[in-house]
Specification:
This protein is an alpha/beta fold. It is built from nine helices and 14 strands. Helix 4 links the parallel strand 10 and strand 11.
Length: 315
């Protein structure tokens, strides 16, 4: 899988970096979706009878902050004495995760997270921006120590690098028009409903496997799929929740639409998550980063960072 490839479609949303969401719902780690694909946070909705979809008036959902660390599995503090500097490599243009700031320096969620990790470990931190396709080669040739660039963990990449625990995921979600929002979505609720999806995507494969009674409409681009929803040509669209969150909150949506139901995180279709890559066998750095990530989450700094960059939660 490409680096959070499904999320690439929102590179144009640099202007949405500002704006914080009010309200906070701190969540535990995501769980794997079953055939029914339960959401990461079960929607607080009354039970519906089979074949009857629950209806709800559209309303602003509280900002949800994902947490991928189990407080019952606190990592032990590793030996950090061998670490004196961490040379992070990141991507050049992938807002809001990576971009060049007004001062010409690297900026974005990944960059700020990298700096927070170095502060926690108490080592010097450098961040070098490179084209995404050059990052793994730069790491394996010792031109950097770690890649923090929204890189999706995959078996292919695991053959070349090692990964930390995931620090975020790219869930999938349904979007509907605001006058047809559902608090919960199950396969039986979408029987006969028209659902837009990108042709050939993991999202299409998931719908074909799990939502067999829905009427799928495949589109070649995100713009075409979203336009179909705005025009009412489909009842729902299904795709990468991060890019959809920015679209919902942006001007292109014309305030037409909102999320329906919760996030889907089935790793067989949507990947293992986004991790930090280190050279094969560099367990000292990998364990140090895992320990520092847990500490940052435990202290609430991850929540603060997430809210700084995501005004509409994809979770």
């Amino acid at each position: 899988m490409a680096p959070s490839q499904q999320a690439k479609s929102f590179k144009s949303v640099r202007g949405l970096l500002t704006g914080l969401a009010a309200g906070l719902c701190l969540l535990g780690g995501p769980t794997e979706a079953s055939a029914q694909a339960p959401a990461k946070r079960p929607p607080a909705a009354p039970q519906a009878t089979p074949q009857t979809a629950p209806q709800a008036a559209p309303q602003a959902a509280p900002q949800a902050v994902p947490g991928f660390w189990d407080p019952r599995r606190r990592p032990e503090r590793p030996d950090l004495s061998r670490l004196t500097v961490i040379r992070f490599l990141t991507e050049t243009d992938y807002p809001p995760f990576n971009f060049t700031g007004a001062d010409g320096n690297p900026a974005g969620f990944n960059v700020d997270f990298a700096r927070a990790l170095c502060e926690e470990i108490k080592v010097t931190c450098t961040v070098q921006m490179r084209r995404f396709e050059t990052l793994v080669d730069a790491l394996t040739s010792n031109r950097g120590d770690a890649i923090i660039a929204s890189m999706a963990v995959s078996p292919q990449l695991r053959a070349r690098v090692d990964f930390t625990d995931p620090y975020y995921r790219v869930p999938a979600r349904f979007v509907s028009r605001k006058d047809a929002v559902m608090p919960e979505i199950r396969p039986e609720y979408l029987e006969g409903k028209k659902v837009g999806v990108i042709a050939g995507s993991a999202h299409e494969a998931y719908l074909k496997a799990m939502f067999t009674d829905a009427e799928l409409r495949a589109y070649s681009s995100d713009d075409a799929m979203r336009a179909a929803l705005r025009k009412g040509e489909v009842d729902f669209i299904f795709g990468d929740a991060i890019s959809l969150a920015f679209w919902i909150n942006g001007t292109d949506s014309a305030d037409c639409c909102a999320f329906s139901g919760g996030p889907f995180v089935e790793s067989r279709f949507f990947g293992e998550g986004i991790g930090i890559a280190v050279r094969k066998g560099n367990d000292v750095l990998r364990q140090a980063l895992n320990w520092a990530m847990f500490r940052i989450w435990e202290k609430g700094r991850y929540t603060d960072l997430w809210l700084r960059y995501f005004s509409v939660s994809p979770f």
